[in-house]
Here is the input.
Amino acid sequence: MKRYLFLVLVLISSVSFCQKKIYSEENLSITKWIDGTLLSPNSSNKSSLAIIIAGSGPTNRDGNQNFLKNNSLKKLAESLSNNGISTFRYDKRIVKQIREGKVDNDIMFDDFVSDASAVIDYFKEKGTYSKIYVIGHGQGSLVGMLASKDKADGFISLAGASNNIGDVLVEQVTKMAPKLGKEAQKVVNKLKAGEATTDYPETLASLFGPDIQAFMMNWMQFNPKELIKELDMPILIVNGTKDLQVSESESKLLKEANEKANLIIIENMNHVLFEIKGDDLENSKSYNESFRTISPQLITSITDFINS
Here is the structure.
């Protein structure tokens, strides 16, 4: 009986140990529109903080949208915090606006930059972190470049474009429908010049409709290749060979723009940070497959960079 009781106690102890979190979790409101989650390693040592900025669309702190759940940014945050790095990830302001039914149709790209800047300021004022790094994913890479300048201790671009968003859209449209490429270029030329237009095919309305032209004009003011040159801090640029949205050539152009930056290309990693062994269909489906594991090489690379 005593031996049986001893085995039970050992089993309970083992289960408790396996389930023990090595980080604490706290939900924070930074501004009126910015809510996020802070993960802090259970260590007495002063850690670095990684602020994670989501990509385009109404993307929440976990990397998900309404009909796409992959938890990529949640997995990124938890993996880094398991490695002793504090993380803060937050919902884009449009997420809270949609949730509360108070969508601001006048939202600008600059608002995303202001939000990221406010998050950096919030944690800098606390003074509880040894260093603050910014991780920008997709569109968040450009947002992070703008917000990090003269504020952060380091910057990490995940699947970030190197070219102006107008040029990126023209290239994408041309690949899908070559005949529409010239029409897209005409629209982009006008928007870059700050001119609204209604002269475009209906098939391009989702990209250049009247409701989003002001936002696109604002976004098109920025050139990532030029901005990354201005960052005087450690930089890590990461992309995957199976990214359907941002090719690895984009990351190489960012590296050329700032020769001091570190560049890592991860074999088979896609845009949502999963490693894909199959074809484009498997790749696309993974955007809504939260059971997948985030790239181990990505976590190791970021951890090593922050700790170096």
Notes: The chain has 13 helices and eight strands. The longest helix spans residues 2-19. The first strand starts at residue 23 and ends at 29. Residues 1-19 have pLDDT under 50 and may be disordered.
